[in-house]
Amino acid sequence: MNKAFTLIELLIVILIIGIFAVLGFSSYMNSIKSGKDARRKTDLASIQKALETYYQDNNAYPVPIGTAVPNTGGAFCHPLGCATVTYLQTLPNDQGGTPYYYVSTGPSYQSYQLYSCIENTNDSGPGVKQSGYGISCGAGRCNPCRFGISSTNTTP
After folding, report:
1. Could you tell me which of 66, 133, 153, 143 has the C-alpha nearest to residue 98?
2. Domain annotation covers residue 31
3. Model's pTM, two decimal places?
């Protein structure tokens, strides 16, 4: 009796191993995206706390200073101008280099919205809007922004 494997048996084993490898790689990539998204959410929560502290000191949210609206990197300044006090020198980028976006409108600056990229298309947590918020978070994977938080008197 011949105890060797046939070509068909070997191909089936290789196919099964390939399927498991693809599934494992896909899960790995999703976990990396979820980790990056968790970091983005944590960053925005920290910025939100700083904005609320700023509001307690000034009874207004910072004026977005920068060349573009929404603010993508300018300083957060006192309502009377940057010469008075600068609370946050620049709005940071996320770990992928995509900027966070800050929107606050005058003349009284009583509300704000913060937006970020979300890579995981399966995320459906608080602040996530997979159809997007209408603000571009960069080309490709993050256009439009799909995560937003805001002051309590408005919505993202």
Report:
1. 143
2. no
3. 0.73
C-alpha gyration radius of the chain: 23
Between CA 121 and CA 138 the distance in angstroms is: 16
The string of pLDDT tens digits covering residues 18-40 is: 999 999 998 898 888 888 888 88
Residue 61's nearest CA partner among 91, 87, 90, 94 is 87
Q: What is residue 120's three-state secondary structure?
A: coil
Percent of the chain with pLDDT over 70: 78
Number of structural domains (the chain) is 1
Written as six digits, the tokens of 86 are 């600068």
* CB 109 within 8 Å of CB 64: no
The helix (run of H) or strand (run of E) holding residue 114 is strand 113-116
Q: Which domain holds residue 66?
A: 38-150
